[in-house]
Amino acid sequence: MAGKLIDGKEISSQIKAELAQEVGRLQKENNITPGLAVVLVGENPASKVYVGQKEKACAELGIFSQKHTLSAETSEAELLDLVRSLNEDPDIDGILVQLPLSGHIDENKVIETIVPEKDVDGFHPVSVGKMVIGLPGFRPCTPSGIMELLKRTGVDLVGKEAVVVGRSNIVGKPISLMLLAESATVTVAHSKTRDLGEVTRRADVLVVATGRPNMITADMVKEGVVVIDVGVNRLDGGKLVGDVDFDGVREKASAITPVPGGVGPMTIAMLMYNTVQSAKRRAGAPVSV
Fold it and tell me: What is the dihedral of CA 100, 103, 109, 114, to 10 degrees?
């Protein structure tokens, strides 16, 4: 029997509905509207789409959205000056500089210039360090979204074998730490792993974030596995597929995310979540990060 679909659209809608109520309370009780500043440098079409999705989500939730569109020729110094001014802006609770940036700009320097209190992307070294040692702080949005998918689908991680395929700073490394924090036994595999199938077949929970279409096939998973497919790949014919061979793997999985409509919607929902938590901190209210 085919595995249950883990519907990221539905779960992200639940989270957004909860956040809209929190935004309403902040406005009514504290006269505070959460504010998110998004900085877009250059004309990258994918980045424009992502920024548009973030603006739309802000509008849905009642979050103040401030967009800064800069030319591709913008210097590193000019970008850093803008980030510093946003750090000081009392109406801005979260700062997001859309990546990737032009080659002449040091992404790490930009990320490190955002104050950790407004680092709603969860990429600042201070945020990462807090995650490693288990202190409260902003977590990266895609891994946070994965954890919410698992939690709201009722997946118990305690003592489970979790395998993460991919070791990026954005998904692979942070999700492995977050799974570990929930008492899963975690293995991180990657492009240099010998006999990848032997490793992935151990997984009770399999998270795949490699950027390689249909890389994980049915013979690489065991019966009853829960599969989270982070990949988004466009084939020559225009079809969007994940890193997992969906049709084949679904026959063995107990639950699986589709592509599109799985992890993707959760990333923006968790960005909104982090922004609202930052605004609650500004209001002196209890926060959940």
Answer: -40
Q: Which of 87, 89, 43 is nearest to 69 (CA)?
A: 43
pLDDT tens digits, residue range 103-128? Answer: 999 999 999 999 999 999 999 999 99
216-271: pLDDT as tens digits: 999 999 999 999 999 999 988 889 999 999 999 999 999 999 999 999 999 999 99
The yes-or-no verdict on residue 71 having pLDDT over 90 is yes
- Tell me which of 54, 130, 160, 173 is the catalytic residue: 54
Residue type, 1: M
Residue in 16, 93, 98, 229 annotated catalytic: 98
48 & 101 share domain: yes
CATH of the domain at 44: 3.40.50.10860
48 is catalytic: no
Asked whether the whole model's pTM tops 0.90, one would answer yes
Q: Measured between alpha carbons, how far is 266 from 53 in angstroms, rounded to an integer?
A: 12
The pLDDT score that the predictor gives to residue 44 is 87
Residues 81, 82, 83, CA angle at the centre, nearest 5°?
90
Q: Which of 16, 93, 119, 121 is catalytic?
A: 121
Residues 35-54 as b or e (16 or more Cβ within 10 Å = b): bbbbbbbbebeebeebbeeb
The distance in angstroms from the start CA to the end CA of the chain is: 38
**DSSP-derived secondary structure letter, 98:** P
Q: What is the CATH number of the domain that holds 205?
A: 3.40.50.720
Mean pLDDT of the region 143-150: 98
